[in-house]
């Protein structure tokens, strides 16, 4: 399942790159095209982030997320002085 999600994200990123290539010629001509270009750039960035998170989502990362973090106290900053 992880591989299919990864390949689906890669395919969607390629589609966004094709859309960007088509829109790039029309960005300066109309504000609608410019807004659409910016929207596609944001969508591509979101897909890239999801792909990075999917690759990084290992068992260790999931366990780290569940472990409680030690809270810093003010006395921790003055220790050893």
Description:
The protein is mainly α. Helix content is 75%, strand content 0%. Helix 1 (2-24) runs antiparallel to helix 2. The longest helix is centred in the middle third of the chain and has 26 residues, at 31-56.
Give the mean pLDDT: 84
User: Could you describe the largest sheet, including whether it forms a barrel?
Assistant: none
Order of helices and strands: HHHH
Strand content: under 5%
How many runs of DSSP E, i.e. beta strands? 0
What class do helices, strands and sheet pairing give?
mainly alpha
- The best one-word shape is elongated
Helix percent reads over 70%
Total domain modules = 1
Output the radius of gyration: 21 Å
Distance between the termini: 53 Å
Count of separate DSSP helical elements: 4
Uncertain ranges: none
Short characterization:
By secondary structure, the chain is mainly α. The chain contains four helices and no strands. The radius of gyration is 21 Å and the shape is elongated.
Secondary-structure map with pairings?
Elements: H1 2-24, H2 31-56, H3 59-66, H4 74-77
Helix pairs in contact: 1-2
Descriptive terms for the model:
mainly alpha; 4 helices
